[in-house]
Amino acid sequence: MSERYLFRGNHAIAEGAMRAGCRFFAGYPITPQNEIPEYFSARMPDYGGVFLQTESEIAAINMLFGASAAGVRAMTTSSSPGISLMQEGISYSCGADLPMVIANVVRGGPGLGNIAPAQSDYFQATRGGGHGDYRTPVLAPNSVQEMFEFPKLAFELAERYRTPVIILADGLLGQMIEPLEYTFDPVDPKTLPKKDYILDGCKGRERRVIRSYDLRPGYLEKLNFERIKKYQKIEAEEVRYETDHLDDAEFVIIAYGTCSRVAKAAVRLARNNGVKMGLLRPITLWPFPKKMIEELTGKTRLFIVVEMSMGQMIEDVELVVKGKAPVRLIPHPGGGIPTAREIWERFQQFREEL
Amino acid sequence: MRKVYHRPEGLTDTLMRYCPGCGHGIIHRIIAELLVELNIRERTVGIAPVGCSVFADEYFNCDMIQPAHGRGPAVATGLKRANPDLIVFSYQGDGDLAAIGTAEIVHAAARNENFTVIFVNNAIYGMTGGQLAPTTLPNMVSTTTPRGRNTKLAGNPIRVCELLNSLDGPVYINRTSVHTPQWVLKTKKAIKRGFEIQMAKKGFALIEVLSMCPTNWRMSPIESSRWIEEVMSKYYELKLFRDLTKEEK
């Protein structure tokens, strides 16, 4: 068995990113993710990469636009208000098909909100977030181990599909400390295949242009139809989820990230009380595990959506269930974290009302 | 017959969309000539702004990138830090650099990033049809100051060179113009200096170029040149503000 280390989530995501070949980090301090840029600033020199504390999140995301165009694996991290500022750059990066990784250690909102863990940026992350027709893959870790592993997966997806990828964590995942195993060998960026679109000077080839606009009539629509094909491929091939006790479940909790950890405990509590409860944990929030929910719809008496927001993911669930089964919500908007006992008690109320 | 004038290799064979008398074409040509003369065309990435010169990404015969409005200096920072072997220039207008992108240019200059900025100041928003720019002169008419820029209401113009000259970071700051042949030659010298400083890895250079916008100034090209000479260059003093490489000697 390989060695295990105690790691804070925010440190794990930074170490995981650099081991995944990230050689450019730009970011602006914001709680509860300050340990990420701090860790990058300490370790990036060892990896021979660039660390930059920027004047704003707007500058950070645009530095990624440049670094990604130059061909390096580039990442930024922030928390909710800062991610709002980055939406312009994310939209442009989607328009220019530039890969990059953006981690959002979500805190309570709207506005300055608070610094407690939250999941209230679900809509922003899964709907694109900025202006224009686009989507970004969204990965939702639920452990320090996954905080470490998801940057690598995110870079792979980002480069395979030439798109920004969002890692949607929350303040709890950022701050909590858990054992961690180094489950993959460090990636040497020099061994990665050279990209055929990057800007490295036009010596010996035609000049290249990276842009997000096309003013010629009809051309943007054509381009966007092409990009939709890419999104359809992602929806077909990149859905990831985890299940717990679903085989015989009559009642299904759907929860991601921190909530899925609590939900797992609630499932155990229910099972100990003789109730056939199971858990579906979406790992990719976009693409959303629609097929799995479709399959469950025929045999599930009740879906319970648990989220640290006012009811955002529940809309995706309802879009699939289409009224064929009852869907109930346990929301925690504004920094509250549900407990297993609370889910169990609310479930019993829901069941009585059926 | 002897060919005395031709399109430099630094420009693509594309019809430019600029208006008659506009200064962008002159400034483009200067940069294009320098890309060849300095033998840097094949390792250069140019950054096109948002504004009239958004189409610069079609005109320069080198790798080009077109980012969000005002963010050129941040994108240049990313490119150059990720690949220091590149030559990077950010071509920006007054709205791009001195309004929406003020934070990015100030901080890139403060960090003394090693790239070259060509800042084209024509005191007006050209692409969107003649609205107030951060550099529009007091009392000057624009489509959003139809009675002239009242500084009590619309604020005062920003002198970018003077502003950046208060920072320790930048290596080279110069303000020139393209309203006469003499000033075109001086501008070429200044931009050349900017590129040379970058090639020597010395740091940040910004060349502000006063430029004509006859269409939105509602003037003829000749009147526009005269207006720079008589009015605009009185407000925006044409001079070398800083060349730290000279002080080193």
TrEMBL record, chain A:
Residue span(s) of domain Pyruvate flavodoxin/ferredoxin oxidoreductase pyrimidine binding: 15-186
Keyword terms, alphabetized: Oxidoreductase
Gene3D superfamilies (UniProt xref): 3.40.50.920, 3.40.50.970
One Pfam family hit: PFOR_II
Protein name: 3-methyl-2-oxobutanoate dehydrogenase subunit beta
Limits of the Pyruvate:ferredoxin oxidoreductase core domain: 249-343
GO molecular function: oxidoreductase activity
Stored InterPro entries: 2-oxoacid_oxidoreductase, PFOR_II, Pyrv_Fd/Flavodoxin_OxRdtase_N, THDP-binding, Transketo_C/PFOR_II
Keyword Hydrolase assigned: no
PANTHER family: SUBUNIT OF PYRUVATE:FLAVODOXIN OXIDOREDUCTASE, SUBUNIT OF PYRUVATE:FLAVODOXIN OXIDOREDUCTASE-RELATED
TrEMBL record, chain B:
Transmembrane portions of the chain: none
Domain Thiamine pyrophosphate enzyme TPP-binding: 57-209
Gene3D superfamilies in the cross-refs: 3.40.50.970
InterPro entries, per database record: 2-oxoacid:Fd_oxidoreductase, THDP-binding, TPP_enzyme_TPP-bd
Keywords carried by this UniProt record: Oxidoreductase
Lineage: superkingdom: Bacteria
Coiled coil regions, renumbered to chain: none
GO process annotations (BP): cellular respiration
Protein name: 2-oxoglutarate oxidoreductase
